[in-house]
């Protein structure tokens, strides 16, 4: 600044000095005479004006140079906010540049600190976004339906299972009122109950509440175990509610099946017991008048006692196989030999009814990897059923096939019996199921075919099959894996 | 006094047999059926004084049989005793609605069944004479 001031002082002094000199010269020479006066006007004036003009030009030039340099500094500052200003030009400009650079240097530490903080914040944002995505991924991956609502009963989060259950788009339904998504116009039975339960749980502020909710709808039906947990904010304020709906339809079905089974078993056991009890009471009370009637009563008691025992054995066998408690001792077994053995047992029974048994063709290799006793039980059950339900004079055909490509042996037993109505055929392997129309034909526990299915499918990874035509006959059979080298090694 | 007629319906032939002998020994005429449909037809035809039916029978259950009997003019007043091997198979409300006189659970005593039949028929006779 000093140089500017000096320059200003010099220039203004030159201009002022020139003008003063001109005035002085005018005054001095105004009294002069002739040539001197002329010379004074001619020489002093131009010199003074020249000096003044030079001073003004210098001032102008300096002004232009200064503003030019300042403009370039402004441009530099605008173009690059981070680098220092280049020095150069006049002293004053250098001083200005240095002053700016000093300020810049002072601020650069602060700026760097700010930049670091921004970077940290960006990392934190990315981390929390990742955590949010992870949390969402966890909720989305849960198989149970999960619904999270806020304190105003608006949806915060739901997973795919919830979307499917309540039929809404779980990804684009955030902040929608829960009553709009669940229930409302498209109310399904159970849904309104769920919304009410959700709102009640939030209002009650209870940490956890639990209820069974039944959905009955064409597309979705089932029983759900619904657990609702309140999310607490500051103090005791409930800021949201999490609902988890676990499908317990299958568990309920199993429990119902168990109840049905117990009911059924008790009924089946009570039936022969009723006969035993009634007949023995009649004997005790002397209601059987003659020896023949007494004998008849004794034989009924005996046969019903046997039936009771058979039932208990069948129930135990079935449940042992079902629970996996029974030991399956597998080994290579020839089906032809097993069938032959069981035929010996059944033949006399078949002869009584004059039933012809058409045996199998000899098979070269029909060894299966199986438990011999169990498969004997399967064969005897199927053969005795065939004899039981075939009228006198009928026939039973036994066929064994080996499918080496599929690696299995197939046994089919075809009878010319009473057959099974079409609507009942799918139930013949069910526990205690007996074809209504055929009940009179023979006694049975309703467990024999179920045992066959359990042994073949559960214990041997095989398959049972049945085809039938009422009045013509039925074919029952099973497939078992062949005893290949690998299986024997196992 | 004319012989009283009892219809016994059960798919267990041994049960039908033992009840028949017990009742015949005690002066009853017994007719029997092995399923609900036959029992209904026989009830319409023979108009028995009382019916003893099993709860579980093929085709039509005992309860369905009673419902059908109650809807029919000729059979609607016939008293019914139901035998059942299933506990709680028939609810009290249903028993009342269908006017089932007695539920006997299996195993049952033929003696007790006879006593029940006699009691019910006696009460009917008293009611009729009033």
Describe the structure concisely for a colleague.
In chain A, α9 (335-352) runs parallel beside α10. Chain A has 12 helices and 12 strands.
Structural commentary:
The complex is a heterodimer of chains A (490) and B (130). Chain A has helices spanning 2-30, 34-79, 91-141, 160-166, 178-181, 191-204, 249-284, 291-323, 335-352, 372-388, 448-459, 485-489; strands spanning 145-150, 155-158, 208-216, 221-232, 238-247, 330-334, 356-358, 367-371, 395-403, 408-415, 463-469, 473-481. With 490 residues, chain A is α+β, with helices and mostly antiparallel strands. Chain A folds into 4 domains: 2-79; 142-247, PAS domain (Beta-Lactamase, 2-Layer Sandwich); 252-321, Orthogonal Bundle (Helix Hairpins), CATH 1.10.287; 327-489, Heat Shock Protein 90. In chain A, the strands form 3 sheets. Chain A has a 5-stranded antiparallel beta sheet with strand order 2-1-5-4-3, with helices on both faces. A 5-stranded mixed beta sheet of chain A has the order 7-9-10-12-11. In chain A, α7 packs antiparallel against α8 (291-323). The radius of gyration of chain A is 54 Å and the shape is rod-shaped. The mean pLDDT of chain B is 90. With 130 residues, chain B is of the alpha/beta class. Chain B starts with a strand and ends with a helix. Chain B has one domain: 3-Layer(aba) Sandwich (Rossmann fold). Classes of the chains: A alpha+beta (490), B alpha/beta (130). Chains A and B meet through α7 and α8 of A and α1 of B.
Features:
heterodimer; A: 490 residues; alpha+beta; Beta-Lactamase; Helix Hairpins; 4 domains; 5-stranded antiparallel sheet; 5-stranded mixed sheet; rod-shaped; B: 130 residues; alpha/beta; Rossmann fold; 5-stranded parallel sheet; 5 helices; 46% helix
What layout of secondary structure does this protein have?
The complex is a heterodimer of chains A (490) and B (130).
Chain A: H1 2-30, H2 34-79, H3 91-141, E1 145-150, E2 155-158, H4 160-166, H5 178-181, H6 191-204, E3 208-216, E4 221-232, E5 238-247, H7 249-284, H8 291-323, E6 330-334, H9 335-352, E7 356-358, E8 367-371, H10 372-388, E9 395-403, E10 408-415, H11 448-459, E11 463-469, E12 473-481, H12 485-489
Parallel strand pairs in A: 7-9
Antiparallel strand pairs in A: 1-2, 1-5, 3-4, 4-5, 6-8, 9-10, 10-12, 11-12
Helix pairs in contact in A: 1-2, 7-8, 8-11, 9-10, 10-11
Chain B: E1 4-9, H1 13-25, E2 28-33, H2 36-46, E3 50-54, H3 62-71, E4 80-84, H4 92-97, E5 100-105, H5 110-129
Parallel strand pairs in B: 1-2, 1-3, 3-4, 4-5
Helix pairs in contact in B: 1-5, 2-3
